[in-house]
Specification:
Oligomer: single chain
Structural class: mainly alpha
Number of helices: 37
Shape: flat
Distance between the termini: 52 Å
Number of strands: 0
Strand content: under 5%
Length: about 625
């Protein structure tokens, strides 16, 4: 290969992972100055070398030992990153912020030395540096909570009162919940006061950061402290007029706060925030309520859900924003599965909206409705489903948007099971028959996946007259995924109907499908079906009905078909006892012919199968 075409490392990266000549010489002599090497690398003009040096700090610390790390290494890097030019290298500062939490393993209980440099990085202008510094601080705090009263809380107050630039106060908001957990009772009162000041900060970004951390702070506060100090700022922020993200954050805070307060406190303080959010002029706020409505019901409890939230939920289902309506419909399923709605509440508030939602101009809304009808029908039972949902289900199965048809068909088995045969045969079966020939392959595949449930429900006679022909036609579908689904689910149908149906109705049709006039993909699909249905047959029946077809397939003109025949024979020999007479009489001679086949894969599997022959 010519030299110009070889892959060579960039000079900078090569240097970044290789010590200098002087350093190498010291290493050979056994007197390597690790600290001096690091100083040389950190001041290198190459950005790659500097970053690599920072990322190897743990190795340097390990070589130096805890005492030298605490006395020399950490003071050095704390000073050097505050000086020109490194103080302006944002990538290096980010890497340094990440390394401080790792260095906690190398300071032998002196983690307090890491607080000051991380405090400095938490006040930087670049967001990712601040976020990483706070993350590292939290790691250090979790590792040694006793640092909090003496070192972390004072650092937090300094960040809170830093007035030269707002970024330090933003970082203070992020650090506050973790510091609060490990602070003393006296300090906690001061931290709540500091948080109140942050919520009223003149800078919008600080107020936003404070609002986003309110749920985390609420989770670690006592109930009386929430009532006394947090609820006033919570109510104030929920009315924030300039930033809808703050009002969104208040919805998430409500999820936590409502769990911690009793029903009377919730009615007085938090319920009104949700009611206002449902009518908020910003669709993002309403969307947040819709997405989390099941969690809100769980947090508030059944009493408030019944008295106040159900009527509010109707507003979300009628919202003028399509995305809000879609999420409101989607959240019905977790509300039903979690038994957050009663049957009476569903019938009184939710079901009356379904007719309008079924005709909604937004296709995603109708698709979401189709997705929840199965669980709703199962929850309500046969009578209500037949009376109020059956027409809607039938209409959605004929919807022009394929995602709607796909979603409703995916629940066809559940809906049919709820309705039972008597309530279903004359209404939905014809629609299901049409959908198995739908022009969208995903719909066809979904119907195929539902057929085993329908087969168990209908029984043999109804299946043979209504679905058998259409289902077997799916084995010849133009899309591989549909053929594969039909192949896999045929095993369930065979298990359900037994060997007599398999022998009398299924196998003759499979033999008929396997013909030279059909495309080779159809013949291969037939071969894939045989192992699926063999489970309900005795060895003698396999020899009588399946082996002749496999032997015929070994003489197919298409190598892929011969290949599949050999693999299927091998599987049969591994999983069924076919008897020496059948093997030596028909299977082995066919395999011996393929030992010298023109296709190498056919040869390989023929030889593998022959090994299993007695």
């Amino acid at each position: 290969k010519p030299l110009s075409a070889r892959t060579r490392p960039e000079p900078q990266l090569a240097n970044a992972t290789r010590p200098s000549a002087a350093a190498a010489a010291m290493a050979v002599s056994g007197d390597f100055d690790y600290f001096g090497f690091f100083k040389e690398e950190i001041r290198n003009e190459s950005a790659a070398i500097k970053i690599a040096a920072v990322n190897r700090l743990n190795l340097i610390a390990s070589a130096l030992g805890p005492q030298e790390t605490v006395n020399q290494l950490i003071p050095f890097i704390t000073t050097v990153v505050q000086e020109e030019p490194l103080c302006n290298d944002e990538e290096l500062l980010f890497c340094m912020a990440k390394q401080y939490s790792i260095l906690a393993d190398y300071v032998n209980g002196h983690e307090e030395i890491l607080i000051a440099p991380l405090e400095h990085l938490a006040a930087q202008e670049e967001t990712v540096i601040r976020d990483q510094a706070i993350a590292s601080l939290c790691v250090v705090i979790e590792r040694r909570p006793s640092l909090t009263p003496e070192y972390v809380v004072p650092a937090l107050h300094r960040l809170t009162t830093k007035s030269d630039f707002f970024t330090a106060r933003v970082s203070a908001c992020a650090l506050l919940p973790t510091a609060y957990r490990f602070a003393s009772e006296e300090q906690r009162a001061g931290l709540r006061k500091a948080y109140t000041m942050l919520c009223a900060d003149d800078t919008p970004m600080v107020r936003r950061a404070a609002a986003h951390r309110m749920k985390d702070l609420t989770a670690v506060c006592d109930k009386q402290d929430i009532r006394a100090d947090l609820i006033p700022v919570y109510r104030e922020l929920s009315k924030e007029d300039t930033q809808d993200t703050i009002r969104v954050a208040c919805v998430y805070t409500t999820l936590v706060m409502a769990k911690m307060l009793d029903p009377e406190d919730n009615k007085q303080h938090t319920l009104s925030v949700i009611e206002e959010a449902i009518e908020d002029r910003s669709w993002r706020v309403r969307l947040t309520v819709a997405k989390n409505f099941d969690k809100l019901c769980a947090s508030f409890g059944p009493e408030i859900t019944a008295s106040s939230l159900m009527q509010a939920f109707v507003q979300l289902l009628r919202d003028n924003e399509q995305e809000v309506r879609k999420e409101a419909v989607r959240v019905i399923e977790p509300c039903v599965s979690g038994k957050l709605f009663t049957s009476e509440q569903l019938q009184q508030y939710v079901l009356p909206q379904f007719q309008a939602l079924g005709l909604d101009a937004g296709q995603p809304v109708r698709a979401a409705l189709a997705q929840v009808l199965g669980p709703v029908a199962k929850f309500l039972g046969r009578d209500v489903t037949q009376r109020q949902l059956l027409t809607l289900v039938s209409d959605l199965m004929k919807d022009e948007f394929h995602d709607v048809r796909l979603n409703i068909v995916s629940h066809a088995g559940i809906i049919c099971e709820v309705l039972s045969v008597d309530g279903l045969v004359h209404t939905l079966l014809h629609t299901i028959q049409n959908l198995i020939m739908d022009n969208h392959w995903r719909v066809r595949q979904s119907v195929v996946e539902q057929v085993p449930k329908l087969a168990r429900l209908f029984g043999v006679e109804m299946f043979k007259s209504k679905l058998e022909t259409l289902y077997l036609a799916s084995l010849r579908d133009s899309v591989h995924s549909v053929r594969q689904a039909a192949t896999q689910h045929l095993k369930e149908i065979a298990d359900c109907f037994g060997s007599q149906w398999t022998i009398e109705h299924l196998l003759p049709k499979l033999v008929e499908q396997y013909s030279q006039s059909a495309g080779y993909a159809g013949r291969i699909t037939t071969l894939h079906v045989l192992p699926q249905v063999s489970g309900v047959l005795t060895p003698d029946q396999i020899v009588q009905f399946i082996v002749p077809l496999l032997v015929k397939a070994t003489k197919d003109s298409v190598p892929n078909a011969r290949f599949c025949a050999c693999r299927t024979i091998k599987w049969m020999l591994e999983n069924h006892t076919l008897g020496a007479q059948a093997i030596n009489g028909s299977i082995k001679p066919a395999l011996l012919e393929l030992e010298h086949d023109s296709d190498s894969d056919v040869q390989y599997y023929a030889q593998r199968a022959l090994v299993l022959c007695p």
